[in-house]
């Protein structure tokens, strides 16, 4: 699963720390999500989508493995 | 499970109480129980060690929660409930669990080699109990999910 988290966060001039506090996760989690090292749970994905007022599909892109 | 428990502040008070009881048992036990073979003295020594660990852990956490600012406390709660941290802990626990099984097998072989039959049976028994717990836990989790 790829995501546009970093891009959207930077567009809105939000720091990783601010986002982490708002979503009640650690800053490392935000960093790992942005780097693609970690895929969020469905609950966190919904929280992120609500935080940015977007749909999940607009933030997370599912790519099937070939 | 332990991770879920440590989210609650009262757990550390329980730790402190258990630690104090174990410490008291470790200190007073050898004086009350007269034992010529001294194996009970060793057991009381183990209680003493366990008491020190529990009292220290519980004491540090209880003092910390009294002194810590609400902002830092909130951050700590977030760290504990963070889903990535929980996943990391679960993965680390499964590695430790697999290692423990291997260690039990090695221990059983070493004990048999040294002709320590009772400890060998204890090691094998512990390994079987561990496997049994795994099967039961898997079954229960399967029902829940």
SSE layout and pairing:
The complex is a heterodimer of chains A (66) and B (145).
Chain A lengths: L1 E2 L1 H7 L4 H8 L3 H9 L6 H11 L3 H4 E2 L5
Antiparallel strand pairs in A: 1-2
Helix pairs in contact in A: 2-3
Chain B lengths: L1 H4 L4 H23 L6 H29 L2 H12 L1 H31 L3 H28 L1
Quaternary class: heterodimer
Secondary structure: number of strands of chain B: 0
Strand order across the largest sheet of chain A: 1-2
Mean of all residue-level pLDDT scores of chain A: 92
Q: Describe the global form of chain B.
A: flat
Estimated radius of gyration of chain A: 11 Å
How would a crystallographer describe the biggest sheet of chain B? none
Q: Note the total helix count of chain B.
A: 6
Point out poorly predicted stretches of chain B. Answer: none
Number of strand segments of chain A:
2
What is the N-to-C order of secondary-structure elements of chain B (H for helix, E for strand)? Answer: HHHHHH
Describe the protein's architecture and organization:
The complex is a heterodimer of chains A (about 70) and B (about 140). With about 70 residues, chain A is mostly helical. Chain A has helices at about 5-10, 15-25, 25-35, 40-50, 55-60, and strands at about 1-5, 60. Chain A is built from 5 helices and 2 strands. Chain A has a two-stranded antiparallel ribbon. Chain A is globular. Chain B contains 6 helices and no strands. Chain B has helices at about 1-5, 10-30, 40-65, 70-80, 85-115, 115-145. In chain B, helix 2 runs antiparallel to helix 3 (about 40-65) and helix 5 runs antiparallel to helix 6 (about 115-145). The mean pLDDT of chain B is about 85. At the A-B interface, helix 3 of A face helix 4 and helix 5 of B.
């Amino acid at each position: 699963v790829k995501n546009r988290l970093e891009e959207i966060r930077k567009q809105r001039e939000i720091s990783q720390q601010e986002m982490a506090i708002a979503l009640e996760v650690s800053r490392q989690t935000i960093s790992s999500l942005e780097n693609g090292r970690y895929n969020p749970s469905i609950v966190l994905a919904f929280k992120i989508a609500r935080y940015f007022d977007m749909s999940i599909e607009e933030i997370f892109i599912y790519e099937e493995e070939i | 499970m332990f991770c879920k428990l440590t989210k609650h502040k009262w757990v550390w008070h329980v730790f402190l109480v258990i630690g104090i009881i174990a410490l008291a048992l470790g200190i007073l036990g050898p004086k009350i129980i007269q034992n010529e073979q001294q194996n009970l003295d060793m057991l009381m020594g183990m209680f003493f060690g366990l008491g020190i660990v529990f009292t220290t852990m519980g004491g540090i956490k209880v003092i910390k929660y009294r002194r810590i600012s609400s902002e830092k406390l909130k951050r700590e709660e977030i760290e504990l409930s963070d889903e990535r941290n929980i996943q990391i802990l679960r993965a680390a626990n499964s590695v430790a669990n697999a290692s423990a099984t291997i260690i039990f097998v090695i221990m059983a072989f070493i004990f048999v080699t040294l002709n320590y039959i009772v400890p060998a049976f204890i090691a094998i028994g512990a390994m079987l109990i561990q496997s049994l717990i795994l099967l039961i836990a898997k079954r229960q989790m399967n029902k829940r999910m």
